[in-house]
Each structure stands twice: as structure tokens, then as C-alpha cells.
Amino acid sequence: MSRIPTGLFVIVAIAVAVGLATAVSPFASSSPDGLEKVATDKAFLDKGELHSLQEDSPIPDYAFPGIENERVATAVAGFVGTLGVFAVAYGVGYLLRRRGAPSARSVTTPSS
Description:
mainly alpha, 55% helix
């Protein structure tokens, strides 16, 4: 059995993740999640406050701002969010790989 090149695997994996995030996210349930339902049932939903990070979110409520169609806004948010997470993960991996790579000066060769 032949091995799939890593680069090809990464490209296909990103394409599948972006495709799913873009195509499936508009069909996610609009019903409240469990925590929101309990907060509504116990009448303390309106007492909650957003954290400062949530107020300044680039994609609030899983909908890309400025797009009127709710399904399209959600699809674009899924697309941008998936690429954003990949970019951050790739950057962290790149920095860790560079930091952990031995330099040419630190490599010792056994003496004969």
C-alpha cells in the first residue's frame, strides 16, 4: 500500500473541513443550547453579561457581519472561522518546529 504525501493529505483535510463548515453550518439548529434553555426556563437569561472578548468578537453569533442573508452569513462565518483556526494552528506548529529544531552548531558527530 502506498503512502499519501503529507502535503496532499493536509490540502484534502482542509478542503473537507472548509467544505463541511461552509455547507453544513447554515443548517445547524437555531434552537437554544442546553445552557441557554435552562437560563430561559429559570428566567435569568437577561441578567447575563457578555465577556469583553465576546463583545469584540469578529464573527458574533456565528454569523459574518454585514451579510443580510442569515444562511449565507453563517456559511461565510464557518468558512472564515475554519481557515482562521487552521492559520493559527499552522503558525503555532511552525514556531514550535523552528524552536525545537537543533541548530547546525549544536549537532555533534561521534569521533572515530
